[in-house]
Amino acid sequence: MTTVAGAALAEAAALLSRARSGIAFTGAGVSVESGIPHFRGEGGLWTKFDPYKVAHIDTFRRDPAQYWTYSLNHRRMDAEPNPAHRALVELERLGHLRAVVTQNTDGLHQQAGSGRVVELHGSSHEVVCLDCEARLPRDQADRMNREHCPPSCPACGGRFLKPTVVLFGEALPVAALRDAQAMAMAADVVLIVGSSLQVYPAAGIPRMAREHGAELCIVNAEPTPFDDLAAVVIHGKAGEILPQVVGQVAAL
Ligand code: NAD
Ligand code: ZN
User: Fold this and answer.
1) pTM
2) Looking at the structure, do residues 184 and 94 belong to the same domain, yes or no?
3) Using H for helix, E for strand and C for coil, what is the string for the chain?
4) Which atom of ligand 1 is closest in space to residue 46's alpha carbon?
C-alpha cells in the first residue's frame, strides 16, 4: 500500500495502464467538486440530518408531499461534471475501463460522456409510480409538481411517484446489482473514487472483485475501511488527483 502522493500517482498510473477489464466504482465524493454534498465523513449531510428520518421509504410513503415540496424549493438543476468525471471518460477511451459502477444518482458520469454506467442506487432523473411501476422522466414529474404538489401518476392516478433513487428500507435494483457483480468478478483492476465504502450492499462490489483477484486503487479524501486491501491508496480530491493519474496513463 502506498500513501505518498507523488510515488502513488505513478503506481496508480502503472496499475491502471495494465487494466484490461477494469471498472471504476464511484461514490458521492466524485461529485463533491460539482457542488453536490456527500453524506458520510467530514462536512457530509448526515452530520446535519438523520438519514433514517429524511431518506427512508416509510417517511416517503407517509408523506410524499413533504418530499416534493422540498424538491420544489431545493432541487439543484445546474450541477456539471467536474475533471474527475472527465478523467474516467478518458480512461475508458484509453481502453482501461469497461464501465463505471456508481452509487451516485446525479447522472453526471453519463453527462460527462461515460459509455457504460451502472447505477446501483437508481437515478434522480427518473421517476417511478410505486403502484403501477410506470416510469417517467423527472422533468415531466417536476412540471406536474409545479402545477400540483405532490404530483400523481399519469398512468394510474396513484399518489406515490418517487425518483428511482434507492431510499433506506428499499432493495437495490436487481439488474444493476447483477451486472455490477458480474463485472466485479471479471475485473482485473477496480478504481474506487470518492466512496466511504461503508454502504452495503454496494461496497460488496469492490470487495467481491478483490476476492476474485482484482487489484484495488483508491482515491478518496479520507481513509476507508478498504485501504489495507488496496494496492494503491491516494488521499486527496478526486478532481485534482484523477486527471494527473490518467494523464500519466495516457503518456505511458
Ligand atoms: P459517502 O457520502 O458515504 O462518502 C463520500 C466519500 O467521499 C467520503 O469518504 C469523503 O471523504 C469522500 N470525499 C469527499 N469529497 C471528496 C473529493 N472531492 N474527492 C474524493 N473524495 C471525496 O458516499 P458513498 O460512499 O457514495 O455513499 C453514500 C450514499 O449516498 C450512496 O448510497 C449514494 O447513493 C448517495 N449519495 C449520492 C450522491 C450523488 O448522487 N452525488 C450524493 C450524496 C449521497
Ligand atoms: Zn401508476
Assistant:
1) 0.93
2) yes
3) CCCCHHHHHHHHHHHHHCCCCCEEEECHHHHHHHCCCCCCCCCCHHHCCCHHHHCEHHHHHHCHHHHHHHHHHHCCCCCCCCHHHHHHHHHHHCCCCCEEEECCCCCHHHHHCCCCEEECCCCCCEEEECCCCCEEEHHHHHHHHHHCCCCCCCCCCCCCEEECCCCECCCCCHHHHHHHHHHHHHCCEEEEECCCCCCCCCCHHHHHHHHCCCEEEEEECCCCCCHHHCCEEEECCHHHHHHHHHHHHHHC
4) 2
